[in-house]
Design a protein that fits this description.
Strands 1-2-3 form a three-stranded antiparallel beta sheet. The chain folds into two domains: about 45 residues; about 90 residues, no CATH class. With about 140 residues, the chain is an alpha+beta fold. Helices cover about 45% and strands about 20% of the residues.
């Protein structure tokens, strides 16, 4: 195993510069991908939500991911209806901490079905997935 004492300053400088170059390239590629995604989404929408490139053997598909949250009012209603135990009412705030509610579910303190009426979609995020032609699931 090589220790830091075994590495020359020239090697360290070369690797550090290469790291910084790769980091910058990755950031540039991410910005370019984001710009292309912004251009591609409306074009895919116009094309019926997907495009198949037979030469590359891939299909680009728009998938919609729903972002969700718990509605505090509905959670309080669940407590009032005795769907949730009364002791949970004191933990509820006007702004629901989604991770706290998920923790209750994960620990078995409540069932996910108990809070299902309070789970509301807040926005839909369109995502582009790339599928091998002939496959049904994105990668």
């Amino acid at each position: 195993m090589t220790t830091n004492a075994d590495v020359s300053p020239d090697v360290l400088a070369r690797i550090a510069r290469e790291y910084l170059d790769v980091r910058d390239e990755a950031n540039d590629l991410k910005r370019r991908r984001d710009a292309l995604r912004k251009q591609l989404l409306p074009l895919l929408e116009d094309a019926g939500g997907q495009y198949t490139d037979e030469i590359a053997g891939v299909r680009l598909v728009i998938e919609r991911q729903v972002r969700w949250d718990y509605d505090a009012t509905k959670l309080h209603e669940c407590v009032k209806a005795s769907v949730l135990a009364a002791e949970f009412a004191e933990c509820l705030e006007t702004t629901v901490k989604k991770d706290v509610v998920q923790g209750w579910i994960d620990c078995g303190l409540i069932r996910g079905a108990s809070v299902a009426p309070a789970k509301v979609g807040t926005k839909v995020i369109p995502q582009i997935t790339v599928q091998e032609v002939g496959q049904q699931h994105g990668r």
